[in-house]
Amino acid sequence: MFSTAQAKSVIPGFNITMGFSLLYLTFIFLIPVGGLLLYTSLMSWDEFWRAVSHPQVVASYKLSFTASFIGASINLVFGFLAAWVLVRYQFPFKRIIDALIDLPFALPTAVAGIALVTLYASTGWVGQYFELFDIRIAYTQIGVVIALTYIGLPFVVRTVQPVLEDFEAELEEASAALGASRLTTVIKVILPALLPALLTGFALAFARALGEYGSVVFISGNLPYATEITPLLIVAKAEQYDYNGAAAIGTVMLVAAFVLLLVINFLQWWSSRRFSH
Amino acid sequence: MSTVTNASALPLDRSGLWRRATEEPQWVRRTLIGTTLVFLSMFLILPLVVVLYGAFEQGLKVWFAAINEPDAAASIRLTLLVVAIVVPINVVFGVAVAWAIAKFEFRGKTILISMIDMPFAISPVVVGLIFVILFGSQGWLGNWLSAHDLRIIYAVPGIIIVIAFGTLPFIARELIPLMQQQGKQEEEASLTLGASGWKTFWYVTLPNIKWGLLYGVILCNARAMGEFGAVAVVSGRIRGETNTMPLHIEVLYNEYMFTAAFAVSSLLTGLALVTIAIKSFIEWHENRNRVTA
Amino acid sequence: MSIRVENINKKFGDFVALDNISLELPEGQLTALLGPSGSGKTTLLRIIAGLEQPDSGSIAFYGKDQTDQHVSERGVGFVFQHYALFKHMTVYENVAYGLTVKPRKERPSKAEIHKKVMSLLELVQLDWTANRYPNQLSGGQRQRIALARALAVEPKVLLLDEPFGALDAKVRAELRRWLRKLHDEIHVTSVFVTHDQEEALEVSDRIVVMNQGRIEQEGTPDEVYEQPATPFVYGFLGSVNLFHGRFEQHQIVVGADAIEHRDEALIHGTDVFAFARPNELEIITDVDATNGILATVTQVLAYGPQPRVELEGVNEIGQPQHFQVALPPESIKGLALQIGQRVRLVPSRLKVFERDSSAVVAGDKTT
């Protein structure tokens, strides 16, 4: 399907670069992913259904989806706020803080995991203050949300920032000249223009949170039916050589990831269509 | 409303009264900045501080000993070995696929681009699982592999494969938009001047993409060293043999050896800080070029 | 006076954008702020609107001080060069915006808003676009919608910043005539910024010519065109031929040549600038005449929209200088000019300014 190149170009190297890319993608990506799907498809429907609908697994879906959703929502609000503050205002150490936004991308998840649990444990620097109000963070579902918020933090900021930087000041001035208050201008003029970027950032943060493992396992406590996320169940099943169970749940996760990717692509297509002249 | 009707030639300080259409009142600005800084300190700065504090709390000597402990040293060596293999492969793949996508028109281009994006969306544990199912002792190729005395799962090759899968997009994603934006006129000019394809790439294309490539390499490197979920599934956690640095951190942490865990973590944290510092430098460099151009 | 601007000063860093500007704009008129880029005209308009803050000075509308008032409370209609329509709203929603964002107490009912918006869309002849989005309209249509949107809130003053600047020449001319007609219907006090003298002359009731942060002249289009107060205004409003010379007893001496000129006010020996528009010069083929500036024909353009003769001569210090003479095609043919032919240029009308007095150049204006 990629071979119908309009080979009229004078630039050389199409066959070799394309050939190598496809070969590499096939071996490292297509065959393995196809293998998992094939493996699952060879299971009987009953077996598949039993594996993916076991109450413990369903409980993990609920936690994974809810916690990812809450985490992504927190990032939607604070990511927008951070992008706004970084683009519009001047304050000390702004450049350093802007750079640090990428930290959750670059910091290994295991390191983030032990750092977060140390901070938010009931004796930790932050956790001890919540303990005063009888709020436990580490080893509870709140801890899962904290970890998933952390790893999704850069997405909303980094998708919103460039759109906000390019936003025409004239639109805000036009709104103000027409008598709108500042808050009305933000809600009716600026936010709608940022909506595709906000939703894309949200979807990316949500997708990343859904599959996250490393930063969560330390802080969650991994209690079945309570703080056990779906990726953890897959690891546990694989370690117990329950490949069928792991593959079935893994397929569910894979499908969820594909759907999210489609949503993200749709959002990007929508925003480019909506805001081009 | 002001009562100043008689204008004077003296500059009046009206900063408290007049407000620009694109600005919020000062108390709003301060509140927003304050809220953001509190949020970011809780999530970005405190974790950083806690790692470094944990690592150096008991002094440099203890830190040094923790790094040099045989299993820790083995995990560092293994991680560097993996990176030395995975990063060059991904450089070749990234440059090749970006060249094909940016310089040629063909059907299925968008599918190809989405395919490169997919490892971003797939959970790392699913990546690990895929290869366990293929190559594990109970997997499809398990019997054939053990008959030929080959080990992939619970061994170094499996670790390399899953990390290569997980870091596949990083360099390509940096280069594709960059090379698309630069078009192909410069390459065509070079070819009309008689340069070979290879020379054209070396003298024309590479200088144009070097900063993007550098950032791609550095990010790919950081992600390869830090990969955890996928490696956790395929490594088997054999101390001194198949534990990469993140896995070794987990082992140390679970054995309550917190200082040692933070010491190894501090190395990866340093790497992460260097990565984002280089990214900021490149962005600053490009902005400056754009302004002076 | 509907808009009063008093002693406005504005600096951007070291650059003086506005240098002590005072101005009064009469009610119900369409005034053009005309000047080259960097003359401060847009800055002045934005200060009147409240989008920019003056370093000192005051702004009042109908006797009420507005200097510290936020733009959203000044009741101005502002039309931007690049339209600034809200892309995610339909044309209808754009025009209705100013009404829907009013506080609940002042907000008209939905039916009233609908009526108002539709009547405005009819006024700008675009009622059929109500449900479209801005990116489905042409530039000229977008600018008319932007105008309807600004008018919806019934502004005390309407301010337009280079409203036709982003449009191509044909649409621009059309929209110009349309704006003039519209203003004759609604009579809202309006100020528009332009760098195009033709536009200012054609559309406005009054013109304020600005240069380097100062006002050079203000008056009706006739006044500024026919009686330019300063050399700058003369040069800016249409093409001119410029002669540097010295006034000596009923003539202006330019190098080796002289032009007859009678002016009782001028003192013998004064250095002067003398201006003549291309249509105010005559070509004399008698090279031996004593009156007129010697020049060589370089190009004869008898046809086309602007029939003219291009010539080259020398100025008082012997450097080459370019001249342009506009004549009807039949006169050009009648002269039977050859390229390279030497002729003399005699002005039928001449505007003379003293050269050394900077006061004249800067425009010592107090109306």
CATH superfamily of chain B: MetI-like
- Arithmetic mean pLDDT of chain A: 91
Q: Tell me which CATH architecture of chain B applies here.
A: Orthogonal Bundle
- Count of helices of chain B? 13
Structural class of chain A: mainly alpha
The percentage of residues in β strands of chain A lies in under 5%
Q: Which shape of chain B, going by the Cα principal axes?
A: globular
**Beta-strand level of the residues of chain B, as a percent range?**
under 5%
Radius of gyration of chain B: 26 Å
| End-to-end gap of chain B | 46 Å
CATH fourth-tier homologous superfamily of chain A: MetI-like
CATH topology tier name of chain A: MetI-like fold
Enumerate how many helices of chain A there are, as a single number: 13
Contiguous low-pLDDT stretches of chain A (5 residues minimum) are none
Poorly predicted ranges of chain B (pLDDT <50, ≥5 residues)?
1-12
Domain ABC transmembrane type-1 (chain A): 61-264
Organism (chain A): Methylophaga lonarensis MPL
InterPro entries (chain A): CysT_permease, MetI-like, MetI-like_sf, Sulph_transpt2
Transmembrane segments (chain A): 21-45, 65-87, 99-122, 137-157, 189-210, 246-267
Report on the structure:
The complex is a heterotrimer of chains A (277), B (293) and C (367). Chain A is 77% helix and 0% strand. Chain A has 277 residues and is mainly α. Chain A has a single domain, classed as MetI-like (MetI-like fold). Chain A starts with 13 loop residues before the first helix and ends with a helix. By secondary structure, chain B is an all-alpha fold. Chain B has one domain: Orthogonal Bundle (MetI-like fold), CATH 1.10.3720. The longest helix of chain B is centred in the C-terminal third of the chain and has 35 residues, at 258-292. Chain C is an alpha+beta fold. The interface between A and C is medium-sized, with 22 and 29 residues. Chain A: GO terms for molecular function: ABC-type sulfate transporter activity. Chain A: The complex is composed of two ATP-binding proteins (CysA), two transmembrane proteins (CysT and CysW) and a solute-binding protein (CysP).
Descriptive key words:
heterotrimer, A: 277 residues, mainly alpha, MetI-like fold, 13 helices, B: mainly alpha, disordered N terminus
